[in-house]
Amino acid sequence: MAKKNRSVPQYGTVTRKGTLYYRTRILDADGKQVSLYASTCEELYEKQLAAKKQVEEIIFRRKHPTVAEYCEKWLLMQSAKVSSATMKGYTSDMRNYIIKPLGDMYMEEVTADDIRLALVPLTKKSEGLYNTVNMLIKCIFYSAERSELISYNPCVGISAKGGRPTKKKDALTDQQVEVLLDTVKGLPPYLFIMICLYSGLRREEALGLQWDCVFLDAPTPYISVRRAWRSEHNRPVVSTVLKTPAAKRDIPIPKCLVDCLREAKENSISNYVIADSKGEPLAYSQFQRVWQYVVVRSTKPRNYYKYVNGESIKYTVTPTLGMTQKNQPKIKYTIDFDVTPHQLRHTYITNLLYAGVDPKTVQYLAGHENSKTTMDIYARVKYNKPEELFDVVNRALAKDR
């Protein structure tokens, strides 16, 4: 078959380093002029066609990105706002649970059913992971909607929790706090628990706290949050990179915590408030062992596995409150409620709200970047008691008679 004739344009010429070239200019994807050179008009024409095609593809991709492309862009935008540890978690979760199932699809062609199907495998994972991935998916598509890359947001039809029931952990009651502190008094987790309960520090803030940020002799004693701890390959890394800019704050502390910190400082050999026997910040595995002092004293059911005739048999044991551990009589089961490190901080925030501290002040003390986080807790705290709702409604509807 005869080759189709094409009309090759005539181009201008330019001499570069003694060699004559044909030259033309085109607009790149950013609207800037770029020059193309070749030894012949035919060669330059081929270069021009290829460059125009590449520019058109780039422009199309910008207007019609795939899920994978937009996820990478969104991560880059977030890198300036969140800590490296948070970014590492976001990147891993996004690549494993969003890009893998949805990455090759264009953003505009993803449906609510596609998202629900992507979330199905996560129903067998932890509640925390499920909620994180669900949140990331929503962030991606709401961001694309605001940038007018999609005309329809498939997340609109998906509930805030993706349809998966979740159990919110409540703040500890005063009685539970008393039991917890009595249980761990004199044990390794006591100082950590006191700091989180009475200053509301996040785990990474408490583990990164150094004595130069603890002001016990000031007219109003306070803790200055300036560093955060993270774990890399089970090695502690403490830096001035906080979770968000709002995490940088000064927190007044009550007398009970002042006394506890003063005693700890007198016996400390480290720059860190919470440290290992060598004065170094705790590794992740070390913190887990410290928290085990709480776990082993709770009545939470334990699963054990024994090999019987070569087969692994699962046994579930539920300790009885008040009893001691069979092999270690010094360990007594005294905690009959769930408690996590984050619950300590949640208890601090809740107690501030119960005491009537205004939400804006609580937002600052908690280091919340978004006021919605504080207000969500405020709403749960303020309106979860019928007697308070009764008074509010009566005052609102009361009429002079």
From TrEMBL:
<protein>
    <submittedName>
        <fullName>Tyrosine-type recombinase/integrase</fullName>
    </submittedName>
</protein>
<keyword id="KW-0229">DNA integration</keyword>
<dbReference type="InterPro" id="IPR050090">
    <property type="entry name" value="Tyrosine_recombinase_XerCD"/>
</dbReference>
<keyword id="KW-0238">DNA-binding</keyword>
<comment type="function">
    <text>Site-specific tyrosine recombinase, which acts by catalyzing the cutting and rejoining of the recombining DNA molecules.</text>
</comment>
<keyword id="KW-0233">DNA recombination</keyword>
<dbReference type="InterPro" id="IPR004107">
    <property type="entry name" value="Integrase_SAM-like_N"/>
</dbReference>
<dbReference type="InterPro" id="IPR002104">
    <property type="entry name" value="Integrase_catalytic"/>
</dbReference>
<dbReference type="InterPro" id="IPR010998">
    <property type="entry name" value="Integrase_recombinase_N"/>
</dbReference>
<comment type="similarity">
    <text>Belongs to the 'phage' integrase family.</text>
</comment>
<dbReference type="InterPro" id="IPR013762">
    <property type="entry name" value="Integrase-like_cat_sf"/>
</dbReference>
<dbReference type="Pfam" id="PF00589">
    <property type="entry name" value="Phage_integrase"/>
</dbReference>
<dbReference type="Pfam" id="PF14659">
    <property type="entry name" value="Phage_int_SAM_3"/>
</dbReference>
<feature type="domain" description="Tyr recombinase">
    <location>
        <begin position="167"/>
        <end position="391"/>
    </location>
</feature>
<dbReference type="InterPro" id="IPR011010">
    <property type="entry name" value="DNA_brk_join_enz"/>
</dbReference>
